[in-house]
Specification:
Number of helices: 11
Number of strands: 11
Strand content: 15-25%
Bound molecules: S-adenosylmethionine
Order of helices and strands: EEEHEHEHEHEHEHHEEEHHHH
Low-confidence stretches: none
Strand order of the largest sheet: 6-5-4-7-8-11-9
Helix content: 25-40%
Number of domains: 2
Length: about 280
């Protein structure tokens, strides 16, 4: 592991923590522009690094809450942020944090929330899952991700990469690749190129944000048995009888032989809603 670590501005970056820093000021400014962060916004950032993006965001935002797990960065960041009163640094593994509780404690109420981050790639999926569950009321979620992940987040029915997470994002957000960012823009350089993905909140999200967790759980079940038809998946994952599944699909005007990966995002939401109704009515 040590052989993979490099020096950046006198600091030994840690490959295992996904430390690929952005130091180019004009790129950081462009990213800030793309996030749409303005003076009324509260901003959540994951992965402070050397604080370069944090500082720029703080100059435009009302408040910034940022998480960093690496002990060795904290003393330097505490000194660096002394001048920036609207930055709160939390020294913690973001996957162990209660994001909602921290935001309630740190942020002034009544300000729109935006998420903006150059995230550590080794935990991309759990970060996005947590953001959608805990911050699904955010006006936008702008994240640096690997190019391949960006393509997946945009995937639709029958396309490679269409899966619970992209579908879940598309329930609440219009997702776009806002800027390609070559590996050469990072210090040290990662092995892959990246893309800055901007997710803007839909004017009419397809499902209530406060039920996001249950919706995602259902999406994961829908995609659990990829090669099977939806009827077989529902029988397996929800213990419904074949007749119940066929009647559910027919009430939703879905083909008997359809597979989950052929359903559009609104159809996946309708399926979740149909199952809830079926369970409520006790047809089971
Ligand atoms: N924002 C900085 C930038 O753009 O230069 C740093 C980005 S770097 C890709 C990701 C940062 O996330 C690193 O500083 C790393 O230490 C931090 N990190 C890694 N795992 C983390 C975790 N579980 N919780 C919080 N921060 C983490």
């Amino acid at each position: 592991m040590h052989s993979k670590n490099k020096q950046t501005h006198g600091f030994h970056t840690k490959h295992a923590l996904g430390q690929n820093f952005l130091l180019d000021e004009s790129l950081l400014d462009t990213l800030c522009d793309l996030t749409g962060v303005g003076e009324e916004d509260n901003v959540l950032e994951i992965g402070t690094g050397m604080g370069t993006f944090t500082k720029r965001l703080s100059l435009r935002a009302h408040q910034v809450l940022t998480y960093e797990v690496d002990d060795s960065l904290i003393p330097m960041l505490r000194v660096f942020f002394e001048k920036y009163e609207n930055i709160t640094l939390i020294h913690q593994d973001v996957l162990e944090a209660d994001l909602q509780k921290d935001m309630d404690r740190v942020f002034d109420a009544g300000h729109p929330l935006r998420v903006a981050a150059n995230i550590p790639y080794y935990i991309t999926t759990p970060i996005i899952e947590r953001l959608l569950i805990s911050a699904s009321d955010a006006e936008s979620i702008s994240l640096m991700v690997q190019e391949e992940v960006a393509d997946k987040l945009l995937a639709g029915p029958r396309e490679e990469g269409y899966a619970p997470l992209p579908a879940f994002c598309q329930v609440y957000y219009n997702v776009r690749k806002a800027l390609p960012v070559p590996a050469s823009c990072f210090n040290p350089q990662p092995k892959v190129d990246s893309s800055f993905v901007v997710m803007e909140k839909k004017p009419d999200p397809l499902w209530p944000a406060d039920d996001a967790r249950a919706l995602y759980r259902a999406f994961r079940k829908f995609f659990a048995l990829r090669r099977k038809t939806l009827v077989n998946t529902l029988m397996n994952q929800f213990s419904f009888s074949r007749e119940q599944c066929l009647s559910l699909l027919s009430s939703l005007q879905m083909e008997e032989k359809v597979r989950s990966e052929e359903l559009s995002v609104p159809q996946l939401v309708e399926l979740h809603s149909g199952i809830l109704k079926m369970l409520e009515e006790g047809i089971k």
